[in-house]
């Protein structure tokens, strides 16, 4: 008798778990693409981390770099973005450096932090205008996988993708959820009338 | 296998199958429970139960690769990393959509009892009488009173939290203390009560999440993690694993066989009785036969129908139960994804602690009492109020420290709810075995030909407009009614296909869930439903199953089966 059949008989006669070699339920999501295979160079990752840090800087709480947002952005782009989003995002990195070279005669990474902030603030404004002209709304707060493969609707400004990935990667990270927001793994109770004062941080998960 | 003989065989291990196993095993029958998928052991196999968003490779969102693999699951919330592998794969088990039908299935021990929404409401008196009064489909062969004591029985064991609200439209049950409403929900509930002079109610949801422990069943009360779909290591909600299976196993009378796809019920046409079932082992593709005195079909509505269609085809071309010409017909779901959202002013000094697995419920008020609409039946709403978080729309904010500071704090309060509407049984809404498409094991796939019709479409207008009006009337702002993308099946409340009735010519099952043509075959999952009410159905399957199991054992003792 095959071992597998024998195991099953044991399971049948005892009702005990019959554990097979196959992947168990709940435990077989596709693995993340290795960072080196995401199509981003280490220079790209530096740039992505720097963009993210400019959007969500370290203050009295940790910032994007502390949460390694750049690396997470690369994985989201590789695995959760559609081909046209990937292209737009990668083109955006090039555009960004082209822009700063024109304006400041330097790549983005070499700007000082005030320049970085000014540059991305302007891009953010441009993105909002362009998006609203295209009838796009709230794109930066969408999930990174919200576009489906055959979606032919207009894409937002490339900076909106950077912002979307920054926000999502940061606030779903352990650093973002527990050090910038609040998170309690096992609340144990529900209090629907908790006093709140301005400045108290939000829960990471509703 | 040396001994393939049992007193009872149960096909399926979800909510109703688990109940059948518990009841029959407790009453002393030797029971075999067959499950088409893998085993999942309570606690031990809840491998994601303690994971957080940052523990998943993609922070719990589906990849494009997953979307390609699962063209149906990706249509709604089931496709994500934390429950991937828990919803049945379209690759292994395809089905055919003559009309769009979103079918979300749980093929593993515990079935969808591990993945359900846990809202647990009793049907009301009217729900069982409406078909007869309105001349729709056929009359239910039972009334509320036939089920009332069984509702008591299953609620007590399952552990339902809720409030006794004293409303005919939503009969009270036996409850643990309710999961609380928050301060904003309570305030709006009071405003609604006043504005509608007590004719509309915002109530505590009634949920199979416990607020008190059940030490006798090794179950701890809900810990407000809101991670039910990962399996609850506390046993805080009702599932086969947390509740019915341990009790059934403890009798020593139950055997569970995973990877056992029931192909058909075996039928002795001379005795007009089932003799057992034939299965295909999902792993080695071998066929096995198990014999029993009675068979309970609890494979989930459409799969129980499919098993019947494959059974006794030498006697009836359309399968066991098809002599009525109703097998596979009258498929229902609850139509939903329509409702409204609004913002709530004030309460800036209020927040909440803990993540509830349930919210508020607004019971049906349409076509109730003196209310008359240009459609039949009604709907209820399920919703919650909360403060917005970091992912709120931040159009007015730029980038940098100010943005970070602003979205690190909670935003304004908002409230939203979705309606769940009753779907009328209609003979033309049907499923049948495909002649061309087969699953991985060579069994005919189901073909779905189901749609919502005029009555539902009319109702949907109210489902959207009513709530928007209600929110406006009590002074909420930015009120927005929506009607999202709904296709039958999305409610994951599949019902019908083998309805109960009073006449073998027009129904598949009798008043005790026995197949008219094979009285030792019982169908007590969603397939048996003669109409759909607008409340979540699982509690009613539990009550029907316990009732049918009790009857089955009595009939066995009387020698009638």
TrEMBL record, chain A:
Pfam families per the UniProt record, alphabetical: Gluconate_2-dh3
Ranges of biased composition (kind: Basic and acidic residues): 140-154
InterPro entries cross-referenced by the UniProt entry: Gluconate_2DH_su3
Residues covered by region (Disordered): 131-154
Protein name, UniProt field: Gluconate 2-dehydrogenase subunit 3 family protein
Organism from which the protein derives: Neptunicella marina
From TrEMBL, chain B:
Recorded GO MF terms: flavin adenine dinucleotide binding; oxidoreductase activity, acting on CH-OH group of donors
UniProt entry keywords in alphabetical sequence: FAD, Flavoprotein, Oxidoreductase
Domain called Glucose-methanol-choline oxidoreductase C-terminal: residue spans: 425-544
InterPro entries the record matches: FAD/NAD-bd_sf (IPR036188), GMC_OxRdtase_N (IPR000172), GMC_OxRtase_C (IPR007867), P2Ox-like (IPR051473)
Keyword Metal-binding: no
SUPFAM superfamilies documented for this protein: FAD-linked reductases, C-terminal domain (SSF54373), FAD/NAD(P)-binding domain (SSF51905)
Family, per entry: Belongs to the GMC oxidoreductase family.
PANTHER family found in the cross-reference section: PYRANOSE 2-OXIDASE
Protein name per its UniProtKB record: GMC family oxidoreductase
């Amino acid at each position: 008798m095959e071992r597998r059949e024998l195991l099953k008989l044991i399971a049948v006669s005892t009702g005990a778990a019959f554990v097979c070699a196959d992947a168990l339920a709940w435990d077989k999501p596709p693995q993340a693409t290795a960072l080196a295979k995401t199509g981003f160079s280490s220079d790209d990752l530096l740039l992505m981390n720097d963009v993210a840090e400019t959007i969500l800087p370290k203050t009295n709480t940790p910032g994007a770099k502390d949460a390694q947002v750049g690396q997470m952005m690369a994985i989201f782009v590789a695995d959760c973005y559609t081909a046209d989003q990937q292209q737009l995002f990668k083109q955006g990195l090039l555009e960004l450096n082209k822009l700063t070279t024109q304006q400041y005669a330097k790549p983005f990474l070499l700007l000082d932090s005030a320049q970085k902030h000014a540059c991305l603030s302007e891009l953010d404004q441009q993105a909002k205008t362009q998006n609203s002209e295209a009838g796009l709304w709230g794109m930066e707060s969408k999930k990174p996988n919200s576009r489906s493969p055959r979606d032919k609707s207009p894409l937002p400004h490339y900076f909106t993708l950077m912002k979307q990935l920054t926000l999502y990667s940061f606030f779903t990270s352990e650093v973002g959820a527990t050090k910038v927001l609040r998170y309690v793994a096992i609340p144990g109770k529900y209090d629907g009338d908790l006093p709140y004062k301005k400045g108290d941080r939000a829960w990471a998960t509703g | 296998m040396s001994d393939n003989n049992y007193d009872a065989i149960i096909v399926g291990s979800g909510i109703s199958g688990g109940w059948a196993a518990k009841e029959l095993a407790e009453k002393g029958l030797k029971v075999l429970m067959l499950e088409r998928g893998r085993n999942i052991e309570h606690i031990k196999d809840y491998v994601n139960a303690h994971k957080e968003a940052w523990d998943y490779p993609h922070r719990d969102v589906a990849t494009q690769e997953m979307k390609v693999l699962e063209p149906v699951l990706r249509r709604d919330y089931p496709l994500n990393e934390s429950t991937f592998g828990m919803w049945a794969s379209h690759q292994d088990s395809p089905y055919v959509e003559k009309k769009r039908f979103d079918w979300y299935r749980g093929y593993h021990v515990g079935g969808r009892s591990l993945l359900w929404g846990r809202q647990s409401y009793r049907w009301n008196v009217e729900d069982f009488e409406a078909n007869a009064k309105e001349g729709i489909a056929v009359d239910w062969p039972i009334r509320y009173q036939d089920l009332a004591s069984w509702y008591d029985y299953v609620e007590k064991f399952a552990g339902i939290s809720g409030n006794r609200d004293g409303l005919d439209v939503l009969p009270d049950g036996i409850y643990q203390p309710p999961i609380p409403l928050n301060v904003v929900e309570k305030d709006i509930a009071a405003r609604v009560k006043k504005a509608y002079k007590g004719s509309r109610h915002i109530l505590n949801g009634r949920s199979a999440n416990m607020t008190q422990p059940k030490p006798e069943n090794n179950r701890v009360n809900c810990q407000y993690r809101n991670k039910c779909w990962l399996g609850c290591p506390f046993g805080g909600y009702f599932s086969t694993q947390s509740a019915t299976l341990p009790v059934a196993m403890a009798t020593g009378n139950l055997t569970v066989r995973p990877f056992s796809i029931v192909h058909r019920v075996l039928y002795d046409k001379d005795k007009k009785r089932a003799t057992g079932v034939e299965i295909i082992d999902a792993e080695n593709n071998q066929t096995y036969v198990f014999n029993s005195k009675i068979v309970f079909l609890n494979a989930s509505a459409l799969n129980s129908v499919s098993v019947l269609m494959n059974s006794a085809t030498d006697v009836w071309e359309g399968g066991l139960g098809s002599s009525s010409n109703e097998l596979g017909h009258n498929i229902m779901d609850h139509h939903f994804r329509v409702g409204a959202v609004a913002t709530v002013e004030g309460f800036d000094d209020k927040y909440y602690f803990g993540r509830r697995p349930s919210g508020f419920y607004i019971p049906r008020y349409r076509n109730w009492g003196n209310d008359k609409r240009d459609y039949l039946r009604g709907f209820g709403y399920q919703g919650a109020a909360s403060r917005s978080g970091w992912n709120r729309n931040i159009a007015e904010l730029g980038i940098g420290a100010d943005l970070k500071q602003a979205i690190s704090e909670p935003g304004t309060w908002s409230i939203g709810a979705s309606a769940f509407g009753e779907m009328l049984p209609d003979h033309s809404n049907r499923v049948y075995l495909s002649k061309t498409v087969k699953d991985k094991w060579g069994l005919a796939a189901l073909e779905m030909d189901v749609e919502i019709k005029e009555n539902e479409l009319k109702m949907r207008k109210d489902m959207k407009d009513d709530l928007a009006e209600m929110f406006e009337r009590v002074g909420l702002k930015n009120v927005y009614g929506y009607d999202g993308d709904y296709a039958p099946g999305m409610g994951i409340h599949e019902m019908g296909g083998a309805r109960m009735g009073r006449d073998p010519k027009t129904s598949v099952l009798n008043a005790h869930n026995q197949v008219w043509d094979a009285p030792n075959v019982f169908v007590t999952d969603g397939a048996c439903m003669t109409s759909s009410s607008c409340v979540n159905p699982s509690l009613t399957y539990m009550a029907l199953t316990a009732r049918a199991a009790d009857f089955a054992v009595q009939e066995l003792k009387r020698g009638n089966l």
